[in-house]
């Protein structure tokens, strides 16, 4: 696909917003940065079979952060590591990478749309068989108690 200057600039802004989102995921202790990287009307669609309790679709950035990222057990050590980003349209990118945790990893593809310089939607595609049961994952406090 040949892009003109305007299309190229829009694609660059889309990739920049995507990069900001993944950078915020690298700092799970700062949920404010994650909220700031998401559009107010953000929609998160999780892969069927993902071993997390709750809904597969979360509407609104506050709901997604509180009900998904905010519920991840702190002792899990989960990292979302993007490896390749492909602009797929003026406001859309596909990101390939891996989720990694203590002793496990799972490949992912994310389809993201960007609106107003923030991520407006994310559709997660991952091999859910590779994931540990997040509801049964040890918490940081329980892990520390077991070590003392």
Automatic annotation (TrEMBL):
Keyword list, A-Z: Isomerase
InterPro entries: NTF2-like_dom_sf, SnoaL-like
GO molecular function annotations of the record: isomerase activity
Superkingdom of source: Bacteria
Ranges for domain SnoaL-like: 20-120
Name this polypeptide is given: Ketosteroid isomerase-like protein
């Amino acid at each position: 696909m040949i892009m003109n200057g305007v299309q190229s600039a829009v694609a660059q802004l889309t990739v920049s917003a995507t990069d900001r989102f993944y950078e915020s995921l690298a700092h799970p202790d700062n949920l404010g940065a994650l909220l700031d990287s998401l559009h107010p009307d953000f929609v998160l669609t999780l892969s069927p079979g993902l071993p997390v309790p709750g809904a597969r679709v979360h509407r609104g950035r506050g709901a997604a952060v509180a009900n998904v990222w905010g519920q991840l057990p702190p002792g899990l050590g989960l990292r979302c590591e993007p490896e390749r980003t492909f602009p797929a349209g003026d406001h859309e990118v596909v990101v390939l990478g891996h989720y990694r945790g203590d002793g496990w990893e799972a490949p992912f593809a994310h389809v993201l749309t960007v609106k107003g310089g923030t991520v407006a939607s994310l559709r997660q595609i991952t091999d859910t068989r590779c994931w540990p049961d997040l509801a049964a994952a040890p918490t940081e406090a329980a892990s520390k108690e077991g070590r003392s």
